[in-house]
Every structure is written in C-alpha cells, then in structure tokens.
Amino acid sequence: ECAAEEPRVLCIIQDTTNSKTVNERVTLNLPASTPLKRLFEDVAAKVGYVNGSFDLLWSNGDNVTDTTPIDQNSDKTILDAGFEPGKKNFLHLTDKDGEQPHVMQEESGATEDGAQERFIGPLPREGSIGCTHDYVSQSYSYSSVLSKSETGYVGLVNQAMTCYLNSLLQTLFMTPEFRNALYKWEFEESEEDPERSIPYQLQRLFVLLQTSKKRAI
Asked: Is the entire prediction scored with pTM above 0.70?
C-alpha cells in the first residue's frame, strides 16, 4: 500500500554516445525513494552498458543544462537529488572520462540462442536463400541482455514512437484464431521476396513472441 501511494519519477534518458542511439529515448518510471545507485543500475540494464562506464547529465530534452555528472555513488534518493515527481526529468547518457560506454557482454550460450532465434519459424524451401538477420538490430542490441519477464510474455522494442503499432501486433498475437490461421499459411519464396513479405515476417515475429527467452525483441 505504501509503494502504491509513493510518488513516481519519470526519467527520460537520451544516449548521446553515438549516432545510432542519439535519437532514441529510454524511459524509466521509478519510485521517488529509488537510490541514485539503483537509477544507474536500471539505466545500465536497460541500454546494455556496463554499469559505471557512463555518466548521466541533466538536460532539458535537447541540450545539457548541467555539465556536472550526477553522482553515481551518492546515497541520496532520486528525490533528494533534485528529480521531480509528476514531471519529465530529462537526462543525457554520455561518455565517461572520454571513453565510450562498455557494452555488456551476453551470457554464455546467448550466441547460440540468438542464432536459433534468427532462424526460428517458417523457413525457406531447401536450397533457397534465407534471411539471416531477421529481428537482429544493432541499434536495439540491449534487449538481448535482458531475460524474459516473469510473466512469460515477450515485449516489442519501441523503435521510435511505434507504440501504436506494437499494441496492434501484440493484440493480433494474443488472438488465437488469427495467430493459428497465420501459422497455417505457407510462404512460397519463388513468388515473393521473404524480406518484403508481410505475412512471412509476421509469422517469424509471432514465433519469436511465443518462444524467445528475451524480455523484448
């Protein structure tokens, strides 16, 4: 009950360390009592960087407003550190000491699982050329280091304001009649390019939503 009544702090983090991530935003909705240490841990897990290898700076959404990094080792809560509940708190994720953040290494066996997931689902006919890069994007590699949710469900990464499309895809996936009908459909590669075939790619996406060990794909 106390947790439910506690104010929440919305943190919007922009990764400015390279051109591929500069237009992306990571959003965290944290209890006001969250320690600064935990904020950095959550950000690191979210973006797939080694904790302690990056800095967080205050911003207004576009530009840095305070060049002094937030103290990761402080015992303060985010509320005591100046974060405001009920408002958008913008942060820039930047290089630390002139070095780019270290990317978190995937756990052993992750490569094997990843390879399996890339080929899972309806495969091209024997002898045909298949897609080996389905749903593997370097821009969103952080999803591969997060384990599957305890609920057993797999999410979809928001690729810059695609929440409306993600909601539709999840709704279609959770409709058994639609999902099963799609699984029965067979792809004929001789008639269509697999990369441009919407039902074929939808098949593969649904299989990943059903079997992936990741939290989001």
From this structure: no
